[in-house]
């Protein structure tokens, strides 16, 4: 009957999970931008981690439980010892549900019934949560451990205590030390702003990284004895891309076949995370998610084959009105077996510019960026550009790895808003860094930054103000010559110098851009604020200190 209760909770959760507060497990990870996969991963994270215990409401309960927990600690020494076999009897269908963590045995029954989403802990019911925590290590905070202790009922027999889990991220690639790490596992890092505008095409090593899970190990060679069972192992030679039609027919291609069969195209295209500049929006009013500053964006030249050529070859009529969306699936699979996924509208998918890429800046796509294949959807938000691509599916429906829009208040019905696809106009200053001290005697300050807009809308103007937006001067722009203003998927770099305003000890450098549709950026976050801090594109302001 508890099973029923949990199932009911589960249903409730399913309905409510689009409301961020329930999806939040209080960790960076689950509050991530997940433009699209947010909920799914939050859901699973909520599941997996006893950070599962970390749902916000739970945090509140935790405080109430504090006194109880102190008592528990005292009791700890006298607690009974249980063998794994005993714990196993308290699986998801039992009256009382137990889990273990290290040598602790916990009865989480009450937690499950009290907290929407708490039933996710059922994944570990009657067993150890350790393997889940290995994958979502960011949940294993002192706070969460403390909460868990409140549910302690005993000790696990030493012989049954799980050995330390292999680090699920131990096969992640080496990264360049200049990347600014916002979260280590899974790896999320910004490009260093001080180097970003030195290159029109961002060197692969400095390209920002946004991963939801461990990097699939696509380079494992025969005879390599790493036995990390948490990481999906695939070899580039063995990798297959499957295309599934509406009537269930599939074809599949190896990377070599794909390269040989279809004409190749190269396109300069930006990838920008919808959470870029979230930290900025957070200053205006608190938001949730990984606190990206202004460089969760990079620009590369991608080479691959047109998506529509592959679809046509699979017998799919790209003008069939029944086909509304094209879904993509990655090789990165979470503990419930669900791969990272996203979809784009068919109208976009059959365009000239969408490719299944195998090269990034002229070399094989590095592991962090989707080796061996990723889809590039120029002009759209980063989340749609699925890495480690293994499957393409055409469908009447949008991917249910739901993709929220932004704006609106707390009671937002996520289901009613379409996903973010094309990005609005964006620009940010990369140098100087905020709070740079300049000498008044120097007279001027050198400025550099990037601007970009979604949907191929080229940037037509970038302007700088040092008087709070009263007056503006325009910047010199560097653009991709091969792209016209109607099809500009690469970014625009800008440079200029401004005079240090007389008589001030500090001032703001403000930047804003205008795109081909004459869209420009809002002055503040006021009208675009949203709880998850997505697509923040207000005027970018960098405070500067003047030394006399
Ligand atoms: N398979 C897979 N594809 C993915 C992701 C992921 O975690 N797994 N992250 C997405 C998000 S949210 C972004 S912003 C971009 C980041 O691409 P990059 O890491 O190459 O910069 O990849 C997208 N594609
Ligand atoms: Mo993203």
Automatic annotation (TrEMBL):
- The leader peptide range reads none
Pfam families, per database record: Cyt-b5, Mo-co_dimer, Oxidored_molyb
Q: Does the keyword Metal-binding apply?
A: yes
Q: Which GO terms describe its biological process?
A: sulfur compound metabolic process
- Domain Cytochrome b5 heme-binding as annotated: residue spans: 79-157
Superkingdom field: Eukaryota
* EC id: 1.8.3.1
Pathway stated in the Swiss-Prot or TrEMBL entry: Sulfur metabolism; Energy metabolism; sulfur metabolism
Keyword terms, alphabetized: Heme, Iron, Metal-binding, Mitochondrion, Molybdenum, Oxidoreductase
- Which cofactor(s) are needed, names only? heme b; Mo-molybdopterin
Q: Which CDD domains match?
A: eukary_SO_Moco
InterPro entries membership: Cyt_B5-like_heme/steroid-bd (IPR001199), Cyt_B5-like_heme/steroid_sf (IPR036400), Cyt_B5_heme-BS (IPR018506), Ig_E-set (IPR014756), MoCF_OxRdtse_dimer (IPR005066), Mopterin_OxRdtase_euk (IPR008335), OxRdtase_Mopterin-bd_dom (IPR000572), OxRdtase_Mopterin-bd_sf (IPR036374)
Return the GO cellular component terms, semicolon-separated: mitochondrial intermembrane space; mitochondrion
Assign the protein's first listed, main location to one coarse class: mitochondrion
Molecular function GO labels: heme binding; molybdenum ion binding; molybdopterin cofactor binding; sulfite oxidase activity
* Location relative to the cell: Mitochondrion intermembrane space
Gene3D superfamilies associated with the record? 2.60.40.650, Cytochrome b5-like heme/steroid binding domain, Oxidoreductase, molybdopterin-binding domain
* UniProt name for this protein: sulfite oxidase
> Species name for this entry?
Caenorhabditis briggsae
The coding gene here is suox-1
């Amino acid at each position: 009957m508890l099973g029923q209760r949990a199932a009911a909770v589960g249903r409730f959760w399913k309905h409510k999970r689009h409301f961020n507060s329930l999806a939040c497990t209080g960790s960076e990870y689950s509050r991530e931008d997940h433009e699209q996969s947010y909920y799914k991963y939050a859901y699973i994270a909520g599941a997996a981690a006893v950070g599962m215990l970390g749902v916000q409401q739970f945090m509140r309960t935790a405080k109430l439980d504090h006194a109880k927990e102190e008592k528990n600690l005292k009791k700890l020494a006298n607690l009974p010892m249980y063998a794994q076999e005993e714990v196993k009897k308290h699986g998801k269908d039992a009256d009382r549900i137990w889990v273990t963590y290290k040598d602790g045995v916990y009865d989480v029954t009450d937690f499950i019934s009290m907290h929407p989403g708490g039933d996710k802990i059922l994944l570990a019911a009657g067993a150890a949560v350790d393997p889940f925590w290995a994958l979502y290590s960011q949940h294993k905070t002192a706070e969460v451990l403390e909460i868990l202790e409140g549910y302690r009922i005993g000790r696990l027999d030493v012989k049954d205590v799980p050995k330390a889990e292999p680090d699920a991220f131990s096969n992640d690639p080496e990264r360049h030390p200049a990347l600014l790490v916002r979260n280590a596992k899974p790896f999320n890092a910004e490009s260093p702003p001080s180097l970003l505008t030195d290159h029109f095409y961002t060197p692969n090593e400095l390209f920002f990284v946004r991963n939801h899970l461990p990097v699939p190990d696509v380079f494992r060679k025969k005879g390599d004895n790493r036995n990390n069972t948490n990481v999906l192992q695939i070899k580039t030679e063995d990798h297959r891309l499957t295309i599934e039609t509406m009537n269930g027919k599939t074809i599949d291609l190896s990377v070599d076949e794909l390269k040989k069969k279809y004409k190749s195209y190269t396109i300069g295209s930006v990838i920008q995370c919808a959470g870029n500049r979230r930290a900025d929006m957070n200053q205006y009013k608190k938001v949730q998610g990984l606190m990206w500053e202004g460089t969760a964006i990079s620009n590369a030249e991608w080479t691959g084959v047109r998506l529509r050529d592959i679809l046509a070859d699979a017998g799919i009529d790209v003008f069939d009105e029944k086909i509304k969306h094209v879904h993509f699936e990655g090789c990165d699979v979470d503990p419930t077996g669900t791969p990272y996924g996203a979809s784009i509208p068919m109208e976009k998918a059959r365009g000239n510019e969408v490719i299944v890429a195998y090269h990034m800046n002229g070399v094989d796509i590095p592991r962090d960026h989707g080796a061996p294949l990723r889809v590039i959807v120029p002009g759209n938000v980063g989340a749609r550009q699925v890495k480690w691509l293994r499957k393409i599916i055409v469908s009447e429906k949008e991917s249910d790895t739901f993709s929220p829009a932004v704006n609106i208040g707390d009671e937002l019905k996520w289901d009613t808003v379409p996903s973010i696809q094309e990005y609005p106009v964006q620009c940010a200053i990369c140098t100087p860094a905020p709070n740079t001290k300049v000498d008044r005697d120097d007279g001027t300050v050198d400025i550099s930054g990037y601007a970009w807009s979604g949907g191929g809308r080229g940037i037509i103007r970038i302007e700088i103000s040092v008087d709070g937006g009263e007056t503006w001067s325009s910047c010199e722009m560097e653009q991709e010559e091969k792209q016209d203003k109607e099809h500009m998927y690469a970014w625009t770099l800008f440079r200029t110098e401004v005079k240090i305003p007389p008589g001030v000890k500090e001032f703001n450098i403000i930047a804003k851009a205008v795109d081909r549709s004459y869209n420009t950026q809002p002055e503040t976050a006021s009208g675009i604020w949203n709880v998850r801090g997505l697509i923040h594109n207000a005027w970018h302001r960098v405070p500067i200190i003047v030394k006399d």
